[in-house]
C-alpha cells in the first residue's frame, strides 16, 4: 500500500469524523436541523471527505477486489465497497439538493437518504478501521 | 293586487312574524333563507326601541310638504332581528375590550398620534406587549372612541350594555347614543358606505346617527351635533328628551316603508381596505405597487379571513387555533340549533355536543393558513414546489418571510396604514414622514422561533418619571408645555403634519417646562429616552422606547418575486437585507439621532457567523464541483469493478459450460 493510499484513507477518516460528529451528532443529540457553525463545519469537511473518498476509491479499489492480496482481510474488503457505495450516495444526496432539480418532496427524500446513508457510512468506517488489522482473506488465490 | 306588491306584503308578514318571534325569544334566530344565493334585504328599518321607522307622509295635515324626519335606524334592532347581534358583538372586530378574550398574535395597534406634540403611542385593549392599554394613559372608552371612531366599526366598548350616567365622559352616551356595530361598513356590496359622512357624524359625536348617515339613508336633522348637546349636559342632570331626528331620503323607502339594502355575506375586498390598507408608496406613487397575488387571482379577503356568525375572523396565522377560545355565546347558539333539530336532547347534552362540534371546527382554521391552503389544495391553490430550497428553510422561516410585503432593501421602507394614518378619509396629502412612521419589512423571530417579516413603530411621547415609574402624558397635557415649538400659520399650511424634527434644544426646553417638583419630565422617541441631568440633555437607549412590531402577511408577491427565487444570494450574501439591513428608529427627531440596529442585532444573532456563512456561499460552486467530481470518480471506480465482476462471472459460467 503506497503512501498516497494511506494519506487518502487518513483524510477520508478525518473528514468522515467531522461529518459524523456534526451530522450524526446533531441528529443523535436531538437538535436537527444542523445550523450555524455546526453546518459550516459540516460543509467545510464535505469537500475534504469527497476528494479523499475519490482518492481512496482510486487507490484502494484494486487492493480490495476479490482475489487480491490477503491483506486487507475479507471483512475489510467488503466494508470498503460499502464505504464507497454509501459515500457515493451520501455525496450525491448532499449536493443534489443544492441544484434546482428537486422540489420539497425530492428534497425530503434526499435528506432522508443522506441521513440513512450517512449513518451506514459512519458505521462502515468505524468497523473498517479494526477490520484492517483483522485476519487476512482465507483464500487469496481464488481471485477473479 | 300586483304580484310585486303581493310579495312585498308577504315579506312584511314574514317580517312581522319574525319580530313577534324575536320579541318572544331572546336573541335573533328567527328566519333564514338557507340558500347559497343572496337574500334580498328589502326590509323595514327599526329604531333603537324596535319600532318600525316610517317617515311621515310627504304632505302634512295642513297640505304642506314636510320632511321625512324620524329616528335613526338601529343596526342592533334592524339587522339583529335575524342575525344575533349579541353573538356578533363578541367577534374579533368588536371584542378587544372584553378582558376574557385571548389576545392572539400581536396585531396592528391603534396609534394615538398628535403632530403638534409629536406624540405617537401604540394602544391596544388586548394587552399586546409593547402597547399601552388606553386606561394606562387615562384614556377612557369614550375618549378612545372620539379618537378612533373613524375606523372603529362600533360594537364592543362602543356599545356598552349599560351607560354609567355618573361618568362625565361615558355619560355623554345618553345623548350621543351608543356606537352600535355598523354592519354596512363591511357588508354593503355596492360600495355605498359613505365613510366621509360617517366620519363627519362621528366627529360631532353623533354616534347613534352615524350608521344611518353612512348608509346614505338620510342626513343629521339638527344644526347642533349630539356632542354639542352633550357639552351642555352635566352628570346628575336629566338628558334632553327629544334627540335630533334624521332627515330621511324619502325615495329610499318603498310603498311598504321597506328599504333595500345591497348587502352581502362575503364583503368585497374594497370594504376591508377601508381599515386594512397598507400603502408603501403614498400619493401619486400608488400606481407603482402591485396588489396581492391572491386578489389578482380573483380571490377576496374573506375567502381566507372567513368567519361564522360569531364573527371570529380567521386571522390566518399558523397556530391560531390554540389562540382561540370558544365562547359561551357560541356554545349557546350551537346548542340552541342542536336542540331545535333534536327536541329529545337535554340542554346539558346539547351544550356538550355543541362544544365538541365547535372544537372540531377550530381545526379548520389551520387549513386556511398559507401552508394549510397550499398543501391541501383549497381553492385550487398551487402546491408549492420550492425546487432547490433546502428543507431547513421551512423550519427557520415563515411562508411570509419570503413571499410577503415589499422586497427588502438596505433599509426597511416606510409604510402607511389605514388605522395609523386615517387612510380612506380625505386629508392633506400624507408624505413619507407623516406620523406615525411605520417601517416594513423588519425580519424578526416569531413565537415559534421562525424568522418572519414585521411592521415596526417606535413610540414617541412625553412622560413623567417618578420613582422609576414612567407615566405617559396625553397630547393635551403635553401641549401645555410652553417649550414645545409651535408652527406658524404658513408652516402649518405647508407642513400640516408637523414633520419637522425636534432639535435637542427644543427637547431640552420642553423638558424644562414640563418638569415639576415631584417628578422629572422625559421624552421618548426613536428608541431613546431624553432626560435632563444637571441641566444637560441626555439621550439613552431605553426599554420604554423600544419599538412595537407586528407580523405582516400581505401583500403576497408572486412566486417568481419571492426571496430566494433568484438564488441563494437573495439572502446569503454579504449585503443581505434580511440579515444586514439597517433598521433606523424613526420618530420626531433627526434620523441620525435615532437608534440604529441591523436585522441580526434585533434578532440577537451572531454577526461573525452571518458574515462567515454569507462568505461561504462564494465557495458553494467549488463545493458542488469538488463533490460532483469526486462522485464521478467513485462512480467510475465502482462501475469499472462492477463491470469487471460481471465479466468475470460471465467468463466463469462460459468456462463451466465448456468443460466436458
How large is the radius of gyration of chain A? 16 Å
N→C terminal distance of chain B = 115 Å
Count of alpha and pi helical runs of chain B = 25
**The biggest beta sheet of chain B, please?**
5 strands, antiparallel
Fill in the keyword field for this structure:
A: 144 residues, mainly alpha, Fumarate Reductase Cytochrome B subunit, 4 helices, B: alpha+beta, 3 domains, 13% strand, globular, disordered N terminus
Describe this structure in words.
Chain A has one domain: Transmembrane di-heme cytochromes, Chain C (Fumarate Reductase Cytochrome B subunit, Up-down Bundle). Chain A is mainly alpha-helical. Chain A has helices spanning 3-28, 36-60, 74-95, 104-132. In chain B, a hairpin with a 4-residue loop joins β3 and β4 (119-123). By secondary structure, chain B is an alpha+beta fold. In chain B, α13 crosses α14 (347-362). At the A-B interface, α2, α3 and α4 of A face α16, α24 and α25 of B.
Outline of this structure?
Chain A is mostly helical.
Question: Secondary-structure map with pairings?
Answer:
The complex is a heterodimer of chains A (144) and B (660).
Chain A: H1 3-28, H2 36-60, H3 74-95, H4 104-132
Chain B: H1 3-24, E1 41-44, E2 69-70, H2 75-78, H3 85-88, E3 110-114, E4 119-123, H4 141-148, H5 173-176, H6 183-187, H7 195-203, H8 210-214, E5 218-220, H9 226-232, E6 246-248, E7 258-261, H10 269-276, E8 278-279, H11 293-296, H12 301-304, H13 328-341, H14 347-362, H15 370-376, H16 392-396, H17 399-403, E9 413-417, H18 418-421, E10 438-445, E11 451-457, E12 461-466, E13 469-472, H19 475-478, H20 489-494, H21 504-514, E14 520-525, E15 528-533, E16 536-541, E17 548-551, H22 577-580, E18 582-584, E19 596-598, H23 599-602, H24 607-616, H25 620-658
Helix pairs in contact in B: 13-14
